[in-house]
Each structure stands twice: as C-alpha cells, then as structure tokens.
Amino acid sequence: MTFRITPARMTMAASSLIAVSALAACGTSGSDSAANLQLKPSTSTTSSSSAAAPTSSAAPSSATPSTTTSSKPAAKPTTKATKPASRGEARPATTTRTVTDTKTLYFSTVKEYDSTLAKGTSKVTTAGQSGSAKLTIKQTLVGGKVVKSVTVDRDVIKAPVNKVITIGTKKAVAAPAPATTGSTSGGSSSGAGLNLARAAMWDRIAWCESGQRWGLVASNSTGTYYGGLMMTRDAWRIGGGLKFASVASGASRAEQITVANNLYAQLGLKPWSCRGAA
C-alpha cells in the first residue's frame, strides 16, 4: 500500500513543530502537550515519525536552561566568607617593643684570714658598695599585655665593690718573761715549755728572713716557708713545733724561738739562709 504525503499534511507537521519549539522556549513542561499536537494532525506512519524526531530533540533543550538558572551554588561563598572574618576579629594583636631599665648590682661579702691579728677578732678592711647596670629588654605584647621579656643587652654603669672582713687567727700570747743569761751553747728556759735563749740573735735573723713578721707565709721556687724565721714544715716538726701549731706562722714569737733553739741544738744555724745576721 502506498502513502502519499500531500502539501497539506506537510504544512500541518511544520505547524506542530513550531508549536512545540515555542513551548520549550517559554520554559513550560509540555512534552505531553507536544505529543498531543503531533498526533492530532495525522494518523499516518510518515507523519508520526516526522513529528517524533523534533520532540526528542526538544526535550534536552528544555532541561538545560533549568539547570543553569539554579541559585543554590551562589549561597555557599557567602557562608565561607563570613567565618574567617569572625575568627580574625577574636584574635588580639601581637606587638613587640624595646625598653630600658636600671638594675642594682649588689656586692658580696668576702672573708680573709690574718695570722697577725688576734684570734677571735675581726675587722672590716673594705666597705661594700653596690653598683648598677643598664638593661635593654625586648618585650612581646599580646592584646596590650606583656607575655615575654628577654634581656638583649647589659651595660654595667658602676661595678660593685665587695665587702672584705679580716678575721684574726693568731693565738693570744702571754707577756714573755725576762730572758735569763746563759751560755751560747746552753739553753735557758723561761715560761712553761718555752726557751727564749738567744732571743736577740733570733730577732736579728727574723729581721733578715721576714722583716720580723711572725705570721708570714711565703713561697718561692724552693718551697713554702712559715713564720718570722721562715721554717719549713719539716723543720718545724723536727724542732717539736707541732705541740704549738701545725706550722710556724700559726705560733707566737716565743714559741717559734723555742723551736729554733731546739733545731740549733741539733743542726746549729745551718737551716737558715740569714745565719750571717746572727
């Protein structure tokens, strides 16, 4: 059976296609209406197939504009932009500054011992004085409050002077009894356990050895010497001086002369380099 497409049918199909396109452009969902318009003009197979092709192509074109015109994505940037702003306002500002300050430098107390000063006595030989220093300080502030301070420079304006206290270690010595006359070879005793024979000779040797400084302690390349007669530890021990003090500088003049007489009885003047002053 042969179908013939007449001009009238073509005109009706074109009109239906124009009507469907008009409905899609206006944003109306008219798929069913477009189908109705296509079915009304003709019941032929040729008309239906020609009308169906525009319908399927028109459906995607109507869906695409509705997707691009959505307003939901535009609301998200507004929410994200407001949160960082609120956090930034809550944080206090952090700043730094440099300040100067003057600090007092306190003196220390130093003790010194003197064998020529009587034991149990003391005196201030140097008065203590405080000093001062200029400090340069770097401060870190958060919200106007100091949270950290670091000293970056210290300039001493006046150095402190330590207080010096001298403490005596010399034992109290009783007034020596008058020396009795004796021979140069013998020893006369005076006082309890003391022998002051040849006292004048020992004074002359002491003057040569130490300037008669009976509490002196001196050292050189040959050793350390103690007392007015500059006796070593061994000489003091051999002469029996340990019953008076550990070294000669800790004993009195009379005790040192007593030990010197004991050494003289054993060795003569050999232990003394100033024996020529005798």
TrEMBL record:
<dbReference type="GO" id="GO:0016787">
    <property type="term" value="F:hydrolase activity"/>
</dbReference>
<protein>
    <submittedName>
        <fullName>G5 domain-containing protein</fullName>
    </submittedName>
</protein>
<dbReference type="InterPro" id="IPR011098">
    <property type="entry name" value="G5_dom"/>
</dbReference>
<keyword id="KW-0732">Signal</keyword>
<keyword id="KW-0378">Hydrolase</keyword>
<feature type="region of interest" description="Disordered">
    <location>
        <begin position="31"/>
        <end position="97"/>
    </location>
</feature>
<dbReference type="InterPro" id="IPR023346">
    <property type="entry name" value="Lysozyme-like_dom_sf"/>
</dbReference>
<dbReference type="InterPro" id="IPR010618">
    <property type="entry name" value="RPF"/>
</dbReference>
<dbReference type="Pfam" id="PF07501">
    <property type="entry name" value="G5"/>
</dbReference>
<dbReference type="Pfam" id="PF06737">
    <property type="entry name" value="Transglycosylas"/>
</dbReference>
<feature type="signal peptide">
    <location>
        <begin position="1"/>
        <end position="24"/>
    </location>
</feature>
<comment type="similarity">
    <text>Belongs to the transglycosylase family. Rpf subfamily.</text>
</comment>
<feature type="domain" description="G5">
    <location>
        <begin position="91"/>
        <end position="171"/>
    </location>
</feature>
<feature type="compositionally biased region" description="Low complexity">
    <location>
        <begin position="40"/>
        <end position="85"/>
    </location>
</feature>
